[in-house]
Amino acid sequence: MKTGEIIIGIVLTTSIFAPLFYLYFLSNRKKMKIEKALKLLAKRHDMRLSEFEIWNQKGLGFDSSKRALVYISILNDLPIEKHVNLLDVKSAKVVANHDVVTIQINTYSSDVINLEIFNSLFDEPLNSRFHLLLAKKWVDYLNNLIKNNTQKAA
């Protein structure tokens, strides 16, 4: 009798927790893939990321010693990679509407670099507020670094 109860308990516990572990490792594997790609991109630019953030299929990283930023977005197995040297950056701002949230970086050479943080075509539309806060956090951080760069140059 006790053996049967133990077996039923083990089967029930396994049937409850196995799918949870599977989903956890599946989502963690996607995150690790983006993190690996972001660090590989940083390594190609001879950078060591002091700060980075990963969300959905995107990642953003910063090297404080090189004063450079790397961005990667992998959508439909097509990577979009960008490298930005903050010494060349004049300003950064958040551009947001209902469907898209981007960080717009303006350089001294009048180039505009857009880093897409959220796009309702690929990301969950209910998470747009989170992505807006994420973009604002990075823009505040970048503008603070840009301001420090201009003060050191003066």
SSE topology sketch:
Elements: H1 2-44, E1 51-55, E2 58-63, E3 68-75, E4 78-85, E5 89-96, E6 100-107, E7 112-119, H2 128-153
Antiparallel strand pairs: 1-2, 2-3, 3-4, 5-6, 6-7
Throw out a few tags for this protein.
3-stranded antiparallel beta sheet, single chain, alpha+beta, 4-stranded antiparallel beta sheet, elongated, 2 helices
Structure description:
This protein has 154 residues and is α+β, with helices and mostly antiparallel strands. Helices cover 45% and strands 33% of the residues. The chain contains two helices and seven strands. A four-stranded antiparallel sheet has the order 1-2-3-4, with helices on one face. The protein has a three-stranded antiparallel sheet with strand order 5-6-7, covered by helices on one side. β3 and β4 form a beta hairpin. The longest helix has 43 residues. It is elongated, with a radius of gyration of 21 Å. The N and C termini lie far apart (83 Å). 23% of the residues are buried.
Short description:
The chain is an alpha+beta fold and 154 residues long.
Amino- and carboxy-terminal Cα gap: 83 Å
N to C succession of SSEs: HEEEEEEEH
Give the count of helical stretches: 2
Structural class: alpha+beta
Helix content range: 40-55%
CA-based shape = elongated
Count of β-strands: 7
Q: What is the CA-atom radius of gyration, in angstroms?
A: 21 Å
User: Stretches where pLDDT falls below 50 for ≥5 residues?
Assistant: none
Quick check: average pLDDT? 87
